[in-house]
Amino acid sequence: MEEMIEFEDFVKNIQLPELTYSATFNPTTGAVISVGPSHAFVDEQHKISLDRETAEQIIDGTIKVNSCFVDITGGKLEIAEIQSVYKIDDVLHRIIEKKWSAITKPEIYISYDRIKKTLTVELTEEYFGTKKVPKKYHPISKRKVIWSGETEMSFLITDYNDPNILYKMVSLTVSDLVEKKKIFKDIELPDRFSVYTRRIFKNYVLGDL
Q1: Rounded to an integer, what distance in angstroms lies between the CA atom of residue 122 and that of residue 124?
Q2: What is the pTM of this model?
Q3: Pairing of the two strands 68-71 and 144-148
Q4: How confident is the prediction along the chain (209 residues), in pLDDT tens digits per residue?
Q5: Which CATH architecture has domain 92-134+150-208?
Q6: Closest Cα to residue 157, out of 193, 112, 113?
Q7: Which segments of the chain belong to CATH 2.60.40?
Q8: Selection from 34, 141, 159, 45 nearest residue 94 by Cα
């Protein structure tokens, strides 16, 4: 006699294959042509695998496909965001100390080494900077940013909570922070001080080395 299987039991026991994603690209320029489920590109020769988060961000338009290209040598996706850097506002913004801040993923991290008398400014690794993102936020999708427009960043180091008493002003450009950190030497500060800036990025944090 033919064995009968309940439909509900059959559906419960179905194991669908895990959905994976791929991107096809121009082998000459590295420009990404299309992104989607891997099974749609079985016959494509020039393709790479993508993590689900990145693929879905490209598919829903959060990341523009024309900003994506493949490093053909390394076989990795890179995202180039053309951004004009203008101040978010013209208000003098005090950078909050890490121990008091609720910001978990700052774009800009400033640290002071009292022994070496150095002030270090870093961009997060998400944007090809040197400041590591906490492991709990990994894996991260790195985004290569091509900056245009006004890129200068200035920081006022002042008396605590008082921008009118200036100890030092330092300046740099955003390009100074791509794949490297900016270290200012011979910065001697009192036990308590504040750092102010006119924001270009949204989130800044001040901490110790």
Answers
A1: 6
A2: 0.64
A3: unpaired
A4: 455 556 566 556 655 567 899 999 998 888 899 999 999 999 999 999 999 988 998 999 888 888 888 877 678 888 876 666 667 777 899 999 988 888 888 889 999 999 999 999 999 888 888 998 777 766 776 776 666 655 789 999 999 999 999 999 999 988 889 889 999 999 999 999 999 999 888 899 998 65
A5: Sandwich (2.60)
A6: 193
A7: 92-134+150-208
A8: 159
